[in-house]
Write a structure and sequence with these properties.
2 domains; 4 strands; 145 residues; alpha+beta
Length: 145
Amino acid sequence: MKQWQFTRGLMHGVITGGILGVLCFLLAMMLASCCTVTQKAVISQTASMDGNVPDSGILTETTGGYVVTAHFRDRYNALVATYGSSKTADGAPIFTPALRKDDGFTKLSGATSQALYGQQVWLITKQAMETMVVLSDLKRRGFKP
């Protein structure tokens, strides 16, 4: 009789423990399936390359703005062509007035700029540089114009 009670108690413990184990596992899976996993945003730690130099085409800052390369100006104008007259989802323009190519750029000419930088350079206003930051962000986020 005692043997039967022991065996019955052992089987009851195994069955109860097994069911509890399965229930705990299912509960853990349900909780894990409710969680949303989001990827951490990648933030660049270095400047992009402009030619063979990691300066993003920005050569120096001045009181009137920034001295930039012709390649920087080309990137700006390409972004203006893509996003310059874009609208938000509700139809409001992103930029008022719509952007135009070379807005905020002044060509620096003369022997001094050639001697200092060894290439054709441009002066971009601080406001146009802020616009470039917004345009670059739109491109990075994959905004559809």
